[in-house]
Here is the input.
Amino acid sequence: SNNPAISNTIIFSVFPTVTVTAEIDAEPEEVCEGETMNFTAVTTNGGDDPVYQWQVNGENVGDNQPNYSYVPANGDEVVLEFTSSLICTVENPVMSNTITTVINPIPVVTWTTFEDTLCVQYDPVPLTGGEPEGGVYSGTGVVDNTFDPEVAGVGEHVLTYTYTNEFGCTDSANYTVYVDMCVGISENIRDGKFIIYPNPVKTDVLYIKTSGEDIRIQ
Here is the structure.
């Protein structure tokens, strides 16, 4: 019976062959020493379950994610090995482009010279001594790189000098200034008279101010 017999039917699924691609970008493209650099993968034809394997200088790093972040050293080579979960692919896994990291130096910033003590009644004083030149001074009583003892008030004040280099990398240095009441000294002596400061003397340096000129006695 049932001769000839008809078998079951098999339906074939034919998938197109696809090309797997992977490209990585860095944000920012350059960083300062100690800063984090972020890498992002842009891929095609990865399927439902792709595999992201990041590498730094040939060593596997990171998790199975399209993003990777770390604090690089200058000249590190970052690349992504990307594996698609699709069946009909060309060149799978595929290697991305290589990014060579650029790390810019942090400037060496110092501030070692300025007045240690100022009388509260003095006029605003331009701040100097920060190196390299071209930075910005800030702190209590500081406006436009000028320190006003009266605005700051009596006591110790920690001022800051901040410098940013041509790469956009920043560092800073502090300097402590003491504002004195200068008790027993006239607050506004003119016409050839003088001011002696600081009073009381807190350092081994004594100043005599006459008609805008400072005479240092050590």
Observations:
- Residues 53 and 81 are 5 Å apart (CA to CA).
- The radius of gyration is 34 Å.
